[in-house]
Design goal:
Number of helices: 6
CATH class: Alpha Beta
CATH topology: Muramoyl-pentapeptide Carboxypeptidase, domain 2
Structural class: alpha+beta
Mean pLDDT: 82
Number of domains: 1
InterPro entries: NO_sig/Golgi_transp_ligand-bd, TRAPP_component, TRAPPC6/Trs33
GO cellular component, one term: cis-Golgi network
Pfam families: TRAPP
Order of helices and strands: EEHHHEEHHHEE
Largest sheet: 4 strands, antiparallel
CATH superfamily: Trafficking protein particle complex subunit 3
Organism: Powellomyces hirtus
Low-confidence stretches: 1-8
Protein name: Trafficking protein particle complex subunit 6B
Distance between the termini: 44 Å
């Protein structure tokens, strides 16, 4: 059985499919409301992002427990692209770009939580529906970076399914 989260002795804690379905249902539940105002959508986004933040903080604690401290922000972001993403999705981020002024763009060409996604309408409508599913992973990234001492703003973008990008802006101290 493949796993999404590994424990200290590398035994499976959560099956990948279970985690995938949990995330899909969590997003659906947060966005299901009697009224469909922008304020409700925004509140759902922040709830999902906060859940991801808390999980990201806890996960990075486990993953880095035996590692030496990181030297700079680029090393921390590289850790997110490699080790943290592998722990979550069994693959590395496909592309990392930076402007060397505190902005990093991470691209996942085949984001696993979008791989089973289907929707009604044209590509723009599907991308809009997929955007709701980016709050949780944005929180995961922000929480992981926060636990490593890097204060950030993380913005997710979807142009075509299953590709997505995460823009990380590091706050100035």
């Amino acid at each position: 059985m493949a796993t999404a989260v590994l424990g200290q002795d590398e035994r499976p804690l959560v099956a990948e499919a279970s985690l995938d379905f949990l995330v899909v249902e969590m997003v659906d539940l947060m966005h299901r409301s009697p009224t469909d105002t922008e304020m409700d959508k925004e509140a759902a986004y922040f709830k999902l992002e906060n859940l991801g933040y808390q999980l990201g903080m806890a996960m990075v604690e486990r993953i880095t427990k035996d590692r030496p401290r990181f030297l700079d922000n680029l090393d921390v972001v590289k850790f997110i692209c490699k080790d943290f993403w592998i722990a979550l999705f069994k693959k590395q981020i496909d592309n990392l770009k930076t402007n060397h002024r505190g902005v990093y763009v991470l691209t996942d060409n085949n984001f696993r939580w979008f791989s089973r996604m289907s929707g009604d309408g044209a590509g723009a409508e599907i991308s809009r529906q997929a955007f709701a599913h980016l709050a949780f992973p944005c929180g995961l990234i922000r929480g992981a970076l926060g636990n490593l001492g890097v204060t950030t703003v993380v913005i997710g973008e979807v142009s075509t399914i299953p590709q997505c990008t995460f823009q990380i802006k590091i706050a100035k101290p």
